[in-house]
Please model this.
Amino acid sequence: TISVSCARFIFIHNIGRCGSTLRHKALNQSEKVISLSEPDVLGQIRYLRAMDGSRDTHLIPLIQSSLPWLFKNTNYGESKVGIIKLRHQCIDDIDVFWRAFPDAQHLFLYRSAEGWVRSMYELGLRWNSPIEIELTEVQSMLEKCQNRSVSLNDFGLKNLPQKISLAEHYTIHWLM
Model:
């Protein structure tokens, strides 16, 4: 077995575009902290989860066994705090990370809707995203991101037009 070389752990959950990478870099400047940003093995949990949660009991040991490997050669001693900044896609997986490490601290970082949508909109323009998007395509993208079926009606979005703007698309993402 590989022992975990940190005294305690903090998971940073975020919605993306909220300053979490800057926080990770700042935290890593401390001699008492080792901060890892978006380790791929934990980011893949999102895609291994079943929509109904039926695989969660198998994923929890996987998550638990990943941390010793991630911090294997850190040699920072028991006084160190291990921080893991997760990818924003993992936001829906807070529950499974909490069940895997209930004694860890779990921080949630977010950004106001207006600032987040503006940031995503500007990013979308750089990616040449269409200015208008078919609502069926938005629904499909949301379900893929959420790894579950999504009803816009559940969010009070019953009477949307067949095409919505890029800003409206990102606003719906922020809500979810």
Summary: The radius of gyration is 18 Å. Strands lie at 8-14, 33-37, 81-85, 105-109, 132-134, 163-165.
